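Appendix B. Chain record.
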Amino acid sequence: MANHKSAIKRARQNDTRRMRNRTVKTRCKSIVKDVRQAVEKAEVDKLPEALQAAQSEIDKASKKGVLHPRTAARKISRLAKLTQPRQS
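Structure tokens predicted for this chain:
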């Protein structure tokens, strides 16, 4: 455990940020999971809304600094590619 006053405060700040980041990451993961399930079940009517919601949530996480911008871009790109109809 931290001994100095500044170190105690820093530990408290880290705990607060870790909890906040965890909720944001969990929300991102669950919404991405919804998109993947919609693709798997071929729910064409739900897909655009689910993809839009996932993109929005991932962008928000990136803006808050929870996800690196390139990580967010990669996740959005892969989801968009996944939802595109396949050409033979």
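Further analysis of this model is presented in Appendix C.
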